[in-house]
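Troubleshooting: if your tokenizer reports a length mismatch, compare your output against this known-good record of 124 residues.
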Amino acid sequence: QVQLVESGGGLVQTGGSLRLSCAASGRTLSSYAMGWFRQTPRKEREFAAAINWSGSNTDYSDSVKGRFTISRDNAKNTLYLQMNSLKPEDTAVYYCAAKSSPYIAAVSRRYDYWGQGTQVTVSS
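Known-good structure output:
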């Protein structure tokens, strides 16, 4: 079983930056693709970014491309999301997820393990 714990969320002004972390335990995730999703009360969970097992391939939603960077440190079993130039519309609960396959996916149902989420609030 895999446990995922996100951290790094908080309140930031428009244009600011945050770095989210997702620490994994229970299993080494070096062979798992991982992703970040986000959700607001008014929307379904939406894809933000994904990374393959080695970090050599990434994918981003159009809404975050050029502002967010996903990365991973397999030695530390940790996933990151660097978020720059934040906008109020980035406000959401951010979830990390792990997929029992090395290859990335932008669809939440492809992921097998989920963290509890961390709140990101961007003030205008």
